[in-house]
Amino acid sequence: MRDRRTAMQRFRQGAISAVGSVKIKLLICSCIAFSVFALVSRTADSMRWSRRTDTLDIYPVSRRGYNIVINTWKRNDLLKQSVSHYASCSGLDSIHIVWSEPDPPSESFIKFLHHVVHSNSRDGQKIVLKFDINKEDSLNNRFKEIKDLKTDAVFSIDDDIIFPCSSVEFAFNVWQSAPDTMVGFVPRMHWIDQSKGNTGSYVYAGWWSVWWTGTYSMVLSKAAFFHKKYFSLYTNEMPASIREFTTKNRNCEDIAMSFLVANVTGSPPIWVKGKIFEIGSTGISSLGGHTEKRSQCVNRFAMEYGRMPLVSTSMKAVDSRSSWFW
Which of 93, 158, 159, 254 is an active site residue? Predict the structure, then answer.
C-alpha cells in the first residue's frame, strides 16, 4: 500500500513537472514567435520607409537641384569670383544674375561668364547662366518672378559673399526637409521694444543679439534658400505698400521676404551654420542709423500685416560631419 502511494506521488510530481516544462516551452516559443513577428514587421516598415525614400528618385531631376540668384550692383570683379566659385558646386541647375544697372552687361562680359561657368562646372553639369535685366533700380528686383526656373529651390545670394560648396549643399539638404520655409546662414532677431512697454513696438537686433541669446526670427536673403513660389507671392500677393516702402528707403527687402514667408508658414526659419567669406567692401549695414532704420521697417511691416508674423526659435542646423562641437 505504501509503495503504491509512493508511486502515485511520484507520478503526480512527474506530471506537474512535465506540465510546468510544457508551459515553459510554450512561453519560450511564444516569446520567440513574438520576436520574429516584431522583427518581420519592423523590417517591413523599414522596407516601406526605404521605398518612400527611394521615391525621390522618380522625381524629375529638375526637382532635386537648385538655382542661384545673385544680386549685384557695379561690382563685376566680385561677380566674376562669385560665378566662378558657385559654378563648381554640385546640384546647381542655373545661375541667374539680377542686373539693375543703367547700362546692360557688355557682350564680352556675358561671354566671359559663360566661359567661366563652362570651365568650372563639374561632372558634366550643364549649368544655365542668365542675366535678368531690370529697367528700374529697386531692391525688389531680386525677388521678381523668374518664369523659366526648372527647379523649386532658390539660393539667394549677394555678389560679395562666398560660401564653400559643402555648406551650400548641406543647406540645400536642410531646405529639402522643410521646403516651405527659409533656410539661411545669416540670422537676425526682433524684440519687443521694452522702452515703450508692451505696446506692439519692436526693435531689430543684429548678429550680436543672436550670438548672445541664441534666438533668431529671420534669416537674411543675402544668403538663404527658399521656394521659387515666394517670388510670385512677393511680387503679386504681398501688399504693394511694402514694396514701395523698400524702394523708397532702399532697405529692408530681406526683412520683407522674411515677413512674407513667416506669414505663409506660421513657422520660424532655419539657421544653418556655415563659414562666410566676405570678398567685398562693407555695404549699407555699416552706415550710421542702420539698426534704427531696420527697426522702422519691422514696425511698418507688422502694421501692414496687422500683426507680427515672425516666429522666433533657437534651433540651428549643423553639419556634424565637419564640426567638433555641434
Answer: 254
